[in-house]
Amino acid sequence: MKALLEKLQIKELNSGACSGPDDWYEDTEGPELVSYNPADGKPIAKIIQATEKTFEQVVVQATEAFKSWRMLPAPRRGSVVRDLGQALRDLKEPLGELVTLEMGKIKVEGVGEVQEMIDICDFSLGLSRQLYGLTIQSERPKHRMFEQWHPLGPVGVITAFNFPVAVWSWNSAIAAVCGDTVVWKPSSETPLTGVAVQNIANRVMADHGLKGIFNLLIGRGAVVGEKMINDKRIPLISFTGSTKMGQRVAEVVARRFGRTILELGGNNAIIVVGDADLEMTVRTILFGAVGTSGQRCTTTRRIIMHKSIAAELTERIIKGYEQVPIGNPMEEEILMGPVVNKAAVEDMIAALEKAKEQGGEIIYGGNRLPEKGEQFVEPTIVKMPAQTEIVHEETFAPILYLLEYENIDEAIRLHNEVPQGLSSAIFTTNLLTAEKFLSYEGSDCGIANVNIGTSGAEIGGAFGGEKETGGGRESGSDAWKGYMRRQTNTVNWSKELPLAQGIKFGD
Amino acid sequence: MSYITLDTTIEELVEQFPEAVGFLTQRNVRCMRCGEPLWGTLRELFRKDGIMNPHSLVDALNEFIEEGRG
Fold it and tell me: Could you give the 3-state DSSP secondary structure of residue A201?
């Protein structure tokens, strides 16, 4: 472990506030935060958390840096992000291992997350030459109308533990080529990956003689988070986390007329039609429900299956669950590691109690696994008689609810009945059913798939969802527009002053 | 002995007394969402969740913690 931490320049005690290679800030009054390995409960390293004083130092730097960063041509900003991608390639394995060490996802997923960072850097490099605005036909003679996209300012990025590095990159690589600086508050569950990424970004900034483009603030939500969302110098807050926290963020930022990109809770379902390929379906369900120990925003939480195949599919899913090796996520054969903290175990057990009270039957799992460690649980399948209150809630744990339906309209109704709207999927070999699911009378989610699962999105598409998922979009497609301000321009190249709508004023 | 008060932040509560999460969830107070504690204090959370008797709930929580820790 020591060698891994050294490769990533993580010390026993680290500062939690930084604006660049020579700008690590420490306030001795900052409370210490210990980062624990969820697999064995042992401490990894410590952080001195940001305080009001260091928050101010970082935000001032980010605000100052924005003034010069926005003046660089976007393709030159792209070259900085290209080098960030290269630096991440060089440290892909150790950074991926640190993700695993600190939050407990299996190593291939940890390394895969870093690959996602590299991919978004590549995407952003191309994007840096494509921040296109429209030209618009003017109704007035000898007038030209067009729109431009300008940098916005320092962007506040608040991320969650489950994708401790990828979500930073979705926001930061795009924001950087758009000409914005970034102030990042990572989850307090994963502060060390924050320090490691900042070290990598620092090296890239140093190579280009920059500082203040990528900034870090590790601290409690009640202190650093609240200051960030209330700060008028930060015109955009991109928040990834729960619906309940997202409501708070949206209210506070809207009060000061700031902008938000919200990526909040999901309650993702797969509809399995009677004609589906069940082998593919089961493999997909296993990855979607058990992967990352059920702690992805896009985790498959509900299976809505046709009555005709319900018994067979249930049996096959249980067989699949029986073969999931659970244990130390650093070991190659393991497919499921621990959950992030002890409280997450308690949350899962409490949710299962509620499911039972509401008529649910636990048909697989449901137990803690103390022999493996305090934060290990069995992946759990609960057969529900109906879509009760607990099924409407997102419990961030490996709980899969099974529901049955008789006709496709009922399936879609059940699917859309929950308040969240992130990701969805249907398994069917019938083209008409698939198209119905993707249509305006089908899934109400931001992501809707056919014959692939709810999780494992690519960076090229816009990522986000509807309803209580918050409506924000990050990553690919035209999500970059959220990080810039649009300006509509009209140039009169005539010697007349015609008014729009044919209005005559004092002529 | 009172471990927890209405001014305890939820982040502190979850970090120091993870067993409180299950206790509160059973009483329809969710202090964890998406695997992370909410921001703010217990007082604010109870107000939002419409808890009519916050002082009694904190007392019961302290009793539960004390019993569990012997």
Answer: helix
